[in-house]
């Protein structure tokens, strides 16, 4: 017997300070007392965005001003399957209110003070802990001294996620650089991933590993106990990242880059066609500048990844 699939539009209402709005399911409804992100069913023939706008008006009394497609996730409950179209909602009119008698609470996704969360929503909290910028090291071009000075500067400015990608370094040189980078990042609680082998990342004390597309396609299961991301360049690779339930993916190249001038680019439409159906947060990489973040959000990206531009003053 095939389970019924319920499609729903779900909103991550997000304040500038990063807090998100959660709602408690009221008495008399299934899963009463459990907490969830607001939203509701998509009606037959209705676009997910239009369902989102309608549901938030009915449930919270607000008018959506700015919303971006984010992730598409599926979850099986005992009696049905749900297909959840998540949107990040960054601007709205009027203060949200529980129009259906539900309690509301603004929460820091890093540290909830309400619960329990509906099972389908729990993985979303981990994704919300990922920042909009993913910086990639560039010691090869800058030299170690200039890179470390630039890293200190951007950490002071709020950098929270970094990939150490220096494949030209021998093991001993990589270990020495890693110690310096991790020491700089630690006071800021910034997470650093190593582009390299899983065991090396663990042994050196990295928060996680960033897999090349070749390494990604050779894996049968994801590394455990650490953040795990991967470089993807097409649908097949992105689908593999989703099958392995990685924490996020980087999709490239979106625009022409100096490092790969002859590579065929996805363009924003090509990026969107892949990213908007993803169950993982996806960063846009390739020719990115800070000013591209809004366009990236509009096309389904969680954020942008930058190498050269990340270290410019």
From TrEMBL:
Keyword Metal-binding among UniProt keywords: yes
Cofactor: Mg(2+)
Record field: catalytic activity: 8-oxo-GTP + H2O = 8-oxo-GMP + diphosphate + H(+); 8-oxo-dGTP + H2O = 8-oxo-dGMP + diphosphate + H(+)
Domain Nudix hydrolase: 4-131
GO BP: DNA repair; DNA replication; thiamine biosynthetic process
One Pfam short name: NUDIX
Gene3D superfamilies: Aldolase class I (3.20.20.70), Nucleoside Triphosphate Pyrophosphohydrolase (3.90.79.10)
Keyword Metal-binding: yes
Record-level Gene Ontology MF annotations: 8-oxo-7,8-dihydrodeoxyguanosine triphosphate pyrophosphatase activity; 8-oxo-7,8-dihydroguanosine triphosphate pyrophosphatase activity; 8-oxo-dGDP phosphatase activity; 8-oxo-GDP phosphatase activity; metal ion binding
EC supergroup of this enzyme: hydrolase
Record's keyword terms, sorted: DNA damage, DNA repair, DNA replication, Hydrolase, Magnesium, Metal-binding, Mutator protein
EC number: 3.6.1.55
PROSITE patterns named in the record: NUDIX, NUDIX_BOX
Record-linked PANTHER family: 8-OXO-DGTP DIPHOSPHATASE (PTHR47707), NUDIX HYDROLASE FAMILY PROTEIN (PTHR47707:SF1)
Family: Belongs to the Nudix hydrolase family.
Name this protein carries in UniProt: 8-oxo-dGTP diphosphatase
């Amino acid at each position: 017997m095939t389970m019924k699939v319920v499609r729903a539009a779900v909103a991550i209402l997000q304040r500038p300070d990063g807090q998100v709005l959660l709602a408690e399911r009221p008495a008399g409804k299934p899963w009463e007392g459990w907490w969830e992100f607001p939203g509701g069913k998509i009606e037959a023939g209705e676009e997910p965005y239009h369902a989102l706008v309608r549901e938030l008006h009915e449930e919270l009394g607000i008018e959506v001003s700015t919303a971006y497609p984010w992730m598409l996730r599926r979850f099986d409950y005992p009696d049905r399957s749900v297909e959840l179209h998540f949107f990040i909602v960054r601007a709205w009119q009027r203060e949200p209110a529980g129009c259906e008698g539900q309690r509301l609470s603004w929460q820091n996704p890093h540290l909830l003070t309400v619960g329990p969360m509906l099972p389908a929503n729990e993985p979303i909290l981990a994704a919300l802990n990922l920042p909009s910028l993913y910086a990639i090291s560039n010691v090869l071009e800058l030299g170690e001294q200039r890179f470390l000075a630039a890293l200190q500067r951007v950490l002071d400015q709020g950098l929270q996620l970094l990939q150490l990608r220096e494949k030209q370094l021998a093991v001993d040189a990589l270990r020495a650089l890693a110690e310096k980078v991790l020491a700089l990042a630690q006071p800021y609680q910034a997470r650093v991933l190593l582009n390299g082998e899983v065991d090396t990342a663990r042994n050196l004390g990295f928060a996680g590993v960033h897999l090349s597309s070749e390494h990604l396609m050779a894996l049968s299961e994801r590394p455990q106990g650490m953040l795990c991301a991967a470089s993807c360049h097409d649908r097949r690779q992105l689908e593999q990242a989703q099958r392995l339930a990685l924490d996020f993916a980087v999709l490239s190249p979106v625009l022409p880059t100096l490092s790969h001038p002859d590579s065929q680019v996805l363009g924003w439409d090509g990026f969107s066609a892949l990213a908007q159906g993803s169950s993982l947060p996806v960063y846009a990489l390739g020719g990115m500048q800070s000013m591209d973040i809004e366009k990236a959000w509009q096309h389904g990206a969680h954020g942008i990844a930058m190498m050269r531009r990340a270290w410019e003053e």
